[in-house]
Amino acid sequence: MNRFDTAAEIYKNYGIDAQKAIDTLKNVTVSMHCWQGDDVVGFDTKESLSGGIQTTGNYPGKARTFDELTADIDKAMSLIPGKKKLNLHACYAVFEDGEFADRNELKPKHFEKWVKFAKERNMGIDFNPTFFSHAMVKDNLTLSSPDENVRKFWVEHGKRCVEISQYFAEETGVPCVMNIWIPDGYKDIPADRFSPRARFKASLDEILSVPYDKTKVYITLESKVFGIGMESYTVGSAEFCLNYVNKNGITPLMDNGHYHPTEVVSDKISAMLLFNEKIALHITRGVRWDSDHVVLFDDETKEIAKEIVAADALDKVFIATDYFDASINRISAWVTGMRNVQKALLYALLTPHKMLKELQDSGDLTALMVKNEELKTLPFGDVWEKYLADENVNSDYLSEIKKYEKDVLSKR
Ligand SMILES: C[C@H](O)[C@H](O)[C@@H](O)C(=O)CO
Ligand SMILES: [Mn+2]
Prior knowledge:
The chain is of the alpha/beta class and about 400 residues long. It is about 40% helix and about 15% strand. Manganese (II) ion binds near residues 222, 255, 282 and 322.
């Protein structure tokens, strides 16, 4: 018997079909964020990153153009198993022949090259308006600005992005998740917490007044607890976003770097699923603050995946990655994080949830703890290796990445 067959026998004793778990995982889409490839710079303003988020590190070889970024995405995706989607930001619009369109003037044509790229790879595209790194961000405010010129500029940007999202969905044949996240906030205690939130609410209403096909575009709203330089007040807080999505029939997005450090998104998933048809996740790794470290196969990533699978909600959750580490090889950052999301999902699919739930419901919490601990040392690695083999990717991706670094990245 080979290692997978032996492992499959062991999982069978717990009522788990390991090959079925692999086959289920093969059909789970994970949306890969394009912005790990260039430290969230984009192609339009090339302004340094603002919005209370930060990349640290200066690892050589970051992508500077559409051709470089797509080559790097291709390399990363060739090393990532499973079904993938591309998550784009509006600042990655591609301008040709000296043309430039500001964020409030963007049109589908500025993303034609991305559509071609995605279609050739049989992939859908998710989208994000870019409300940061731009001269029209005034006093760290966009959609909540008291300056009507500023607010209107960003409302128009949001509207343009709804149109572009529908274009992505229609061209690729895959629904597009359009995520709204604004950085707006104050470093110090504000005099007026109410008015910025009222203006944000009005701005969202205006953006959502653009007609769009709800079967093709899912608009999500991402909350945040604080940003760097905006430590005292964030307009798009959790309560604001929760209430807004529920009142307006859009989808909540939880980024697990966006809560107080002792709060965990894994515990929020079941509550959100009970009140929303769909939910969306940005999977990241906060270290002390929203530091956007590469996703590891760690306890919280596993717990997030467990909550999705145990609730039988794989078709109700839009899963995306969101982190940016400029201190290591960026292709490796993508591959490591994406593989770890999938690893966590496979681990969850190999967990005997029914048996564990029965132990909980019958009050046998002793057995529940013992069984949970026992499961941790089952031969998960052998099932993971079989998944990689089924998907035709090597377990070792480091050598391939080192070679790409020597042949391509080091020459930039
Ligand atoms: C670049 C992304 O839009 C950004 O990371 C956002 O999703 C976020 O998480 C901000 O902290
Ligand atoms: Mn995020």
